[in-house]
């Protein structure tokens, strides 16, 4: 099972990495239109996004657009214990710094056990936009293998949507019991709603 996941990751990342900057931007704009058209997106008051990295679906314009429409935006901070904690951001240029993996994250509190009024409880988030390497049409997802999002989403209540290029969507994935599934996957071509 693990070997299958590694093979899929390698194949999909190679294909995604071969996309030109122009293709990534164009496809990302089509995905943004579909995301912003979802009823769940329109109704959401607090949305958790991810900050795109390398050749992922570009989220910066989505985040800016959602902020401009009055939505509160949370982004993930990865903790030393390999967990995700969502923090509100108000300005993408000022509120972020490179995290442990080089991905921009909200600047975390200096003491992890200290209270910070920017942290959002997952129960108060209406929608979570989830990154991934590969997806299937039933909401299955394979990430980078660290389990950050699987742990974070376990038992989550918010509507969870994955953003992907069509080349990242496979018929089925070799999922295991700890792999969390999503409510929908949006590509430049269509929206796959989980049954």
CATH class: Alpha Beta
Distance linking N and C termini: 24 Å
**CATH-derived topology:** Rossmann fold
Number of domains: 1
Task: Give the total of beta strands.
Answer: 12
Mean pLDDT score: 90
The count of helical stretches stands at 5
- Are there runs of 5+ residues with pLDDT below 50, and where? none
CATH architecture annotation name: 3-Layer(aba) Sandwich
- Largest beta sheet: strand ordering: 3-2-1-6-9-11-12
Q: Element order, helices and strands?
A: HHHEHEEEEEEEHEEEE
CATH superfamily: NagB/RpiA/CoA transferase-like
User: Helical content, roughly?
Assistant: 25-40%
| Strand content range | 15-25%
**Backbone structural class:** alpha/beta
Largest sheet: 7 strands, mixed
Using only CA atoms, what is the Rg? 16 Å
Shape: globular
């Amino acid at each position: 099972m693990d070997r299958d996941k590694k093979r899929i990751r390698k194949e999909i990342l190679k294909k995604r990495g071969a996309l030109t900057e122009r293709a990534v931007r164009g496809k990302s704009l089509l995905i943004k239109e579909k995301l912003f058209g979802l009823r769940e997106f329109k109704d959401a008051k607090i949305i958790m996004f991810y900050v795109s990295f390398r050749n992922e679906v570009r989220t910066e314009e989505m985040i800016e657009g959602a902020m401009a429409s009055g939505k509160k935006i949370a982004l993930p901070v990865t903790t030393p214990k390999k967990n995700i904690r969502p923090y509100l951001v108000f300005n993408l240029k000022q509120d972020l710094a490179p995290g442990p993996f080089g991905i921009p994250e909200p600047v975390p509190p200096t003491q992890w056990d200290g209270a910070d009024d920017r942290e959002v409880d997952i129960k108060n988030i209406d929608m979570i936009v989830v990154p991934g390497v590969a997806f299937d049409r039933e909401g299955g997802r394979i990430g980078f293998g660290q389990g950050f999002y699987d742990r974070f989403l376990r038992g989550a209540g918010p509507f969870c949507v994955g953003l992907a290029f069509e080349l990242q969507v496979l018929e089925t994935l070799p999922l295991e019991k700890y792999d969390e599934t999503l409510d929908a996957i949006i590509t430049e071509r269509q929206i796959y709603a989980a049954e």
